[in-house]
Amino acid sequence: MPKPFYKHKPLLDEHLPPRHVLASLNEHFDAKHISHDFNLAGLPDPQVYALALKQGRIILTINVKDFRPLIRDDSPGVIGIPENWSAQRIDSKLTALLMKNGPTYFRGRYRSLAAEDQTKSAA
After folding, report:
1. Is residue 66 part of a domain?
2. β-strands 10-12, 58-61: how paired?
3. What per-residue confidence (pLDDT) applies to 3?
4. Rounded CA gap, 32 and 27, in Å?
5. Residue 38 lies inside a defined structural domain of this protein
6. Full-model pTM
7. Residues 64-91: tens digit of each pLDDT
8. What are the tens digits of pLDDT across the range 11-31?
9. Maximal C-alpha separation, the chain
10. Lowest mean pLDDT: which of 5-9, 42-46, 104-108, 114-118?
11. Within a domain: residue 105?
């Protein structure tokens, strides 16, 4: 029996491309961008995290060092995005990761998109 589809709610941090550039992610999930959708550029990371918690959104960020210490067990989680990846690569790898996993895989955890990609390549 196939796993049911879960419509994740990603929150793109301000250093990531706008969600319309990540077409596949935007098509399948309820993606929002902290700057382009909420007009909150420059919001301190703890406040970005609080917004994500309130809305049940997984934080997608290049800036992992500031978000990792904020993660709580009841949070939707944080996914680290490699800084040098193209928008196209981010879109395809991130969409595949979210399609494959439900909310419990991310809840209260930090996941690295680069590590997920390396694990898949090694298998």
Report:
1. yes
2. parallel
3. 73
4. 12
5. yes
6. 0.91
7. 999 999 999 989 999 999 999 999 999 9
8. 999 999 999 999 999 999 999
9. 45
10. 114-118
11. yes
Looking at residue 84, the DSSP 8-state letter turns out to be: T
Q: Is residue 5 part of a domain?
A: no
* Residues 6+ away with beta carbon under 8 Å from 106: 8, 58, 76, 77, 79
Its domain, for residue 105, covers: 10-122
Please tell me the total count of domains within the chain: 1
**Helix, strand, coil % in the chain, rounded to nearest 5:** 45, 10, 45
User: In terms of residues, how long is the chain?
Assistant: 123
Q: Are 25 and 94 in contact (CB under 8 A)?
A: yes
Instruction: Tell me the C-alpha distance between 48 and 13, whole Å.
Output: 8
Task: Evaluate whether 59 touches 11 at the Cβ level (below 8 Å).
Answer: yes
Residue keyed to tokens 């390396």: 118
Query: What tens digit of pLDDT does each residue of 92-122 get?
Result: 999 999 999 999 999 999 999 998 866 555 5
Structure tokens at 63: 């800036």
User: Phi and psi at residue 49, in whole multiples of 5°?
Assistant: -60, -45
3-class DSSP assignment, residue 77: coil
